[in-house]
Amino acid sequence: MIRVRQKIVMTALLLGLIGTAPSVMANPAAEPVSQAVQEKPFAEARVALQISDAAGPKQQLVLNVASNLIKFYGADKVDVEVVAFGPGLRLLFKDNALSDQIQSLATEGVRFSACANTIAAMSKKLGHEPELNPEARIVPAGIVRLVQLNKAGFFVSRP
Q1: Rounded CA separation 155/100 (Å)
Q2: What is the model's pTM?
C-alpha cells in the first residue's frame, strides 16, 4: 500500500514538474556547429554576427549586414548565423518590428540563435518567458556558440 502511494505521489510530482517546466522548447535547439557547417559545404565565407545590444538601430544593422553578405556572395555561397544574447535577444522576440526581415533572411538560409541563459534571466525579470520568433533556435550560451562557430572557421563580427 505504501509503495502504491509513493508511486502515485512521485507520478503527481513529475507531472507537476513537467507542467511547470520552462517552455524554452517551444523553439527547437540549434543543431551542433558541425552539422550547421555541413548544410552549406560550398560556402566561400562563413560569418557569425553577434547582437548583444537592445537598440533598434543595432538590430537593423545586424540584419542589413546579413542581407549584404547574401547579396554579395549569393545565398548558397555564404553561411551566416546571427547569435543573440543579453539585451540583443530582443531582436528575436516574436513581436519585434523586424520579424518580417528575419523571416526573409531565414528563407535565404540565415540561422538565428537565441541564448538560453539570457532567456532564463529575462524570464525572471519579465515574470514570464519571452515569446520568440519561430526562426530562433536555442543555444545553451550565446558566447559559447560564437566560440564554437569561430573554431569551425566562421568570421565573428559585431556590427
Answers
A1: 26
A2: 0.83
What sign does the dihedral 106-52-39-79 (CA atoms) show?
positive
- Taking residue 37's Cβ as centre, other Cβ atoms within 10 Å add up to 17
Residue 145 CB: number of other CB atoms within 10 A? Answer: 25
| Grid coordinates of 109 | 538560409
DSSP labels, 15-37: HHHHHHS-GGGGSPBPPPHHHHH
Which residues lie below 8 Å from residue 62, measured CB to CB, with a gap of 6+? 49, 50, 51, 82, 91, 159
pLDDT tens string 89-129: 999 999 999 999 999 999 999 999 999 999 999 999 999 99
Please spell the DSSP secondary structure of 73-138, one letter per residue. H-TTTEEEEEEE-GGGGGGGBTT-TTHHHHHHHHHTT-EEEEEHHHHHHHHHHHSSPPPBPTTEEE
